[in-house]
Design goal:
By secondary structure, this protein is mainly α. Helices cover about 60% and strands about 0% of the residues.
Length: about 70
């Protein structure tokens, strides 16, 4: 399903590239964190702000991607 979505978006369909941080570089992750703080936090409730952590979310995604590993390819 993920590969199908990539095809629909004309994105690179080499699924191996998405196993870590959904294919984002460390610089892109840093920029995303900055944008989240300035753009997203303004629309979140205080409790949601406290609970939202991009690093934690990426760790969970990376763990899931690792678990399905060879099934991606």
């Amino acid at each position: 399903m993920f590969k199908k979505k990539l095809q629909e978006d004309d994105a690179d369909t080499d699924l191996g590239k998405y196993k870590k941080n959904l294919g984002r570089s460390d610089e892109e992750i840093k920029e995303m964190n900055s944008r989240i703080e300035t753009e997203l936090f303004d629309v979140l409730a205080p409790e949601e702000r406290k609970n939202f952590d991009l690093s934690t979310a990426l760790k969970r995604i990376n763990k899931a991607m690792e678990a399905i590993g060879g099934h991606l390819l």
